[in-house]
Amino acid sequence: MRVLPRVFITGVGVVSSIGLGKRAFFSALEAGRSGISPVGQFDVSQLGRQLAGEVKAFEPSDHLTQAETRRMGRCSMMALAAARMAVEDAALPAEQLAGPRTAVVLGTTMGEAQLLGDLEREWIVNGPRAVRPSLIPRYGSTLLPIHVARALGARGMVLTLPAACAAGNYAIGFAADMIRAGRADVVVTGAAELLQELQYAGFVRLAAMAPEKCQPFDLNRQGLLLGEGAGLLVLESEEHAVRRGANAIAEVGGYGLSCDAYHITRPHPDAAGSIAAMRAAIERSGISPADVDFINAHGTGTKHNDAAESKVVREVFGGRRVPISSMKSMLGHCMGAASALEAIGCVFTLESGVYPPNINYETPDPECEVDVVANVARRGSADIVINNSLAFGGYNAVAVFARPGVLPEPQAVA
Fold first, then answer.
1. pTM score of the predicted model
2. Which residues are catalytic?
3. Where are the alpha helices (DSSP H) in 181-271?
4. pLDDT number for residue 1
5. What is the phi-psi region of residue 337: left when phi exceeds 0, alpha when psi lies from -120 to 50, beta otherwise?
6. How many folded domains does the chain comprise?
7. Considering Cα of 239, then 102, then 159, then 145, what sign does the dihedral take?
8. Inside any domain, residue 411
């Protein structure tokens, strides 16, 4: 028999519209600061919408070498910058990071789609011979973890998980499984996403984009706003973290995955898939619904999603009103990076006892009868939190995070 090891989070790094780096990000979350502003990366004048959670303060040369910026797209640059921040936060020496026992697992939705758009534009306008050869080896989403691994010297497994808007939770769960299976001591994980013109226009055409603000769970919500950024975490086995004297800031509990198998953009009305994923995450963490202190919601601000997610919470927790909040009200929907950034928000809650506010909440919706942390941060118990992610296509991914040592002792397996 062997005991499955605990998996600790020892460092986090953030590139976001509300702040670069852990402390700036945490401060903005507590203050309920919005990162929404007019889009500046491309022309949106003909789309009828102009706002997004665009990362305006990120300067690649502050975090990457000139050679690195030449061979990477902006998504990879944000991922690598966040990875370096996470490694620094973990105080992980280069000699303990490099090598075959360190893996890199990253999620994304579209990866370097901006570069793909540039390739297509050059091809269409001027023909295939006009396409710059330098663009071709830079656009693949599979390059995100490779760039990070190369910069860190990590020679273990690299993997991209393009699991739509649940990609961050998928990546973190897979990374934790690698450690529990003894296949890695350290995994640098999380997700990255950037704003892209075709993506932006697509959400406008789907009539899913709000005109002014994202209002999760509000009666008058009008849709989502897109965002971008990167959230990276350093995960370590308990043995490795203890051996090097690391400061464990949180523990990765169980996670649950499911698929609605219903509709490409709309959640199933009975929310059965999401309910199953949340119950699985709780059960696999060895806890009960009564142990959960806070829920970081998927909370897109769309009619059907918020109503379905509220149904999940009521079904799983019954009459118990667990505080719930959506960071997308501040960040916008960062697509593949969303649940990774939100996982880091969960780390903030575990460290501080602060539940970040769900800003722009004005009018309660009877269909969303949940305990929304409305507009102002709230303090409370913060031993165990849930990170909820419900993506297009029915991807449901729910992860549990806890203060180190709070979860039950890992179970022995054959």
1. 0.93
2. 165, 298, 333
3. 197-205, 238-243
4. 33
5. alpha
6. 2
7. positive
8. no
